[in-house]
Amino acid sequence: IAGVTTGTSTSPGVTPSAVSGIVLGGGEHSIANNFGEILPVSVAGIVFFDTNNDGIQNNAGDTGIGGVDIVLTGTDDLGPVSLALTTNPDGSFSFEGLRPGTYTLTEPTQPTGTINGITTAGSAGGNATPITTTPSAVATIKLTTPGSRSSDNLFAEIPTNSSVSGQVWMDMNDDGLANGSEPGIANVKVELSGTDIANNPVTRTAYTDAQGRYSFTDLAPGTYTVTEPEQPAGTRNGQTVAGTTGGTATPVATTPSAISNIHAAANQHSTDNNFGEIPQNSSISGRVWLDGDNNGVVDAGEAGIAGVTVRLSGTDSTGAPVTAEVQTDAQGRYSFTDLTPGTYVVTEPTQPADTLNGQTVAGSTGGTATPVTSVPSQIEGIVLGANQHSTDNNFGELRGGSISGRVFKDNNDDGQVDPDETGIP
């Protein structure tokens, strides 16, 4: 401020401050050339991982996030203000040496590996954006009193470093354990759904790799469900098993298979959420035919017998009973497909019309056939593995023959039935 004599003072905000052009006459004194100073204000806070989404840095995992851009905008007594900095390694930041005014803090870019958490206005108040709004900001920070400070402006971020994973596999013995020798099933669709800790709905889709494995990564803490929406081709539903962080798996009788209530905390990895499938890609087939030479071999020219009922019975690898019936086609062929590994019996319950029982022959995977003297004919002890096809389980039949003749009065004893010779009833 220029004194009582003439002079020109610099404007507020111009440094260094000066009073120039002070003109002094003889015996004059220039007094009250004063330099007024204002105590600066400041705005500070921290950006941090909020592992439990409570908006407070109070857990061991709630570490600061360094290198995050923070922008300060607002208006002081000299006009608009715009400043920027990046957070320190511990996530802290501070705008110092500010003139009194009204300010806004903004985090323009969501930190890598996070979703938005709770933003909290600091010690001087202000209006924080809700968790659903990005970019996060604290507006209307009023620092009109010189020397005042707004501290603890908090930008809490939820880490996305959790995961849910598992495997879809052929559970050959239906024990619910992926034992390493049982193959995975590739290209199976698996869906993730649920709600993260910030109440955001989460939906994702993955497909199993060549080993049947799937993984959903970069998840925020939350509660999730994994679902296998479609039964893999060539299988029937087996045991579904919740993983390392627990959950509720659907029973075998329920499809689609799912594991719900999978709780994933920050940096927690729920593994072995597995979907066991029982292979249903094996078969038993054979033929019913007229074995003209009764050698037990389907020779060229020997015809099949159509419309013959063949019955399948047995127990699959899960202990479940299996029964089915088919009829032979025009060539006498029959087939039971989509079978689970197990031990089976094929039976011809009724002897085909106008035939006699011939040789019954066990097929390509072995078994025990009944002898010609036993009816109904059957082949038992047919053992099937996964994707195994037992062929040529055949039922040979013999064409029925006949013997006929006549009892008569041979009047002339010549051994011939003459026209006048009658039969004897």
From TrEMBL:
The cellular location(s) given in this protein's UniProt record come to:
Secreted
Question: What keywords are assigned to this protein?
Answer: Carboxypeptidase, Hydrolase, Protease, Secreted, Signal
Q: Spell out the molecular function terms from Gene Ontology.
A: carboxypeptidase activity
Instruction: Work out whether the entry's keyword set contains Protease.
Output: yes
The organism's superkingdom is given as Bacteria
Spans of biased composition, class Acidic residues? 413-425
* Domain SD-repeat containing protein B residues, every copy: 44-127, 166-268, 283-391
Protein name (database record): Carboxypeptidase regulatory-like domain-containing protein
Q: Which organism is it from?
A: Stenotrophomonas nitritireducens
